[in-house]
Amino acid sequence: MTTTTETAHALPTDLDAVDLTDPRTFVTGDPAELHDLWQRFRTERPVHHHRATGGLPGFWALTRYEDVMAVYKDSSRFTSERGNVLSTLLQGGDSAAGKMLAVSDGARHRAIRNLMLKSFSPRALGHVVEQVRGRTRDLLSQVLDRDGFDYAEAMAEHIPMGTICDLMAVPPQDRQALLDWNKQVLSADSSEGTADEAWLARNEILLYFSDLARSRRKNPGDDVISALATGEIEGRPLTEEEIIFNCYSLIIGGDESSRMASIGAVLGFIEHPEQWRAFKAGEVTVDSATEEVLRWTTPAMHFGRRALVDVEIAGRTIPAGDIVTLWNTSANFDGDVFADPRSYDLARTPNKHVTFGFGPHFCLGAFLGREELKALLAAMRDMVGAIEPKGEARRVYSNFLYGYSSLPVAFRGA
Ligand code: HEM
């Protein structure tokens, strides 16, 4: 993840000139401009062929809710095994293909997913959710009535990784090392780290999971690593690579996206004070507020697939082998599905956003992601009286993640 303070990048008026691979396209000064752009794609060019850029192949971009949903559902004609985000799709594949859930398909994907699902059921997660709630309230009590602090650093950074460690029952004495390695992996895209350091840190994480899986095989618990290490498919254990890649996928899937949603929730209250007042007054439920935060923030802007056969969508043929990208960030603001889509309405219902995807790859951590946000919103309602902005929020520089890496604020106690 990279962060930026770069100045606004003017969006081209010609849709053919828009570059969806360039992070600067998404870091515009005014989010309304980006919404206008997506609206134009939905109405003028819903099945858009994006030109090849920088020596990489061209690809299709789907922006209407209906089309995005149709591809998410259709894993028989669209595969994830050659990558599921632009960065890997354009490079021709993902090294974890066929081993890690997000980039596997078919019977093997279903079988590994079923094994992992046991540790992701609301009942199995009861204890993890309790810890999320406790951690959120503890962190909040430490920042209340401070003159100012960076919400991203003081709160949002700690909750998702803490939750993932709880889910995997990482022993307390190992957690700091895991957090440090993960930071090194993430800082590779910023000016702070190098690609070599990131590669080494990623290997440390994979080695750590390999050791942990070995010890869980001997002494299993009810955590997700034990489920992977002791699970069998058709009478055979998972391979070492399947176990460690799927452990790692929880960090890839659950850390940054949850952080973006959490920071976006606080920013949403700052930018829409009437929504904060309504929420604080109990006029809006935590559940409906959570769904609107998820729609509004859409942390994972896109996912993608490759067509396995020729497929017709809205009168255009996508040839077999082509890359198709699904723009959640546009689908979640499609006026055919969401009434008054650009209004931030914490009481919105129905709210069938695609923030967690849909179909066979529907986010495995959706329940947990929702619980993290609910814990934050409930704690803020109980403990915070007023929210004061204390400086500029800093945007993340990415063509995949939407959100902020820094948010200076002050919380006054209730
Ligand atoms: C607000 C937070 C989150 C967002 C926006 C999000 C979004 C998504 C989306 C859109 C997908 C579908 C990808 C595709 O179709 O190619 C996905 C898959 C996945 N997510 Fe999440 N996610 C979040 C939180 C989490 C958490 C907390 C975890 C784990 C602890 C997690 C683990 C996963 C995994 C393992 C998959 C792959 C599932 C599969 O392919 O069967 N996610 N996520």
Task: Indicate the topology.
Elements: E1 2-3, H1 31-44, E2 47-50, E3 59-62, H2 65-73, E4 78-79, H3 86-91, H4 106-117, H5 126-143, E5 149-150, H6 151-156, H7 158-167, H8 172-186, H9 195-218, H10 224-230, E6 232-233, E7 236-237, H11 240-254, H12 256-271, H13 273-280, H14 286-297, E8 302-307, E9 311-313, E10 316-318, E11 323-327, H15 328-331, H16 366-383, E12 384-389, E13 394-397, E14 404-406, E15 408-413
Parallel strand pairs: 3-11
Antiparallel strand pairs: 1-13, 2-3, 4-8, 5-15, 6-7, 8-11, 9-10, 12-15, 13-14
Helix pairs in contact: 5-7, 5-16, 8-9, 9-10, 9-11, 10-11, 11-12, 12-13, 12-14, 12-16, 14-16
The chain binds protoporphyrin IX containing FE.
Task: Walk me through this protein's architecture.
Strand 13 and strand 14 form a beta hairpin. The protein has helices at 31-44, 65-73, 86-91, 106-117, 126-143, 151-156, 158-167, 172-186, 195-218, 224-230, 240-254, 256-271, 273-280, 286-297, 328-331, 366-383; strands spanning 2-3, 47-50, 59-62, 78-79, 149-150, 232-233, 236-237, 302-307, 311-313, 316-318, 323-327, 384-389, 394-397, 404-406, 408-413. The longest helix has 24 residues, at 195-218. It has a single domain (2-413), classed as Cytochrome P450 (Cytochrome p450, Orthogonal Bundle). Helix 5 runs parallel beside helix 16 (366-383), helix 8 (172-186) runs antiparallel to helix 9 (195-218) and helix 10 (224-230) runs antiparallel to helix 11 (240-254). It is globular and about 55 Å long. With 414 residues, the chain is of the alpha+beta class. Protoporphyrin IX containing FE binds at residues 80, 84, 101-102, 113, 164, 167, 249-250, 253-254, 257-258, 261, 299-300, 303, 355-357, 361, 363-365, 368-369.
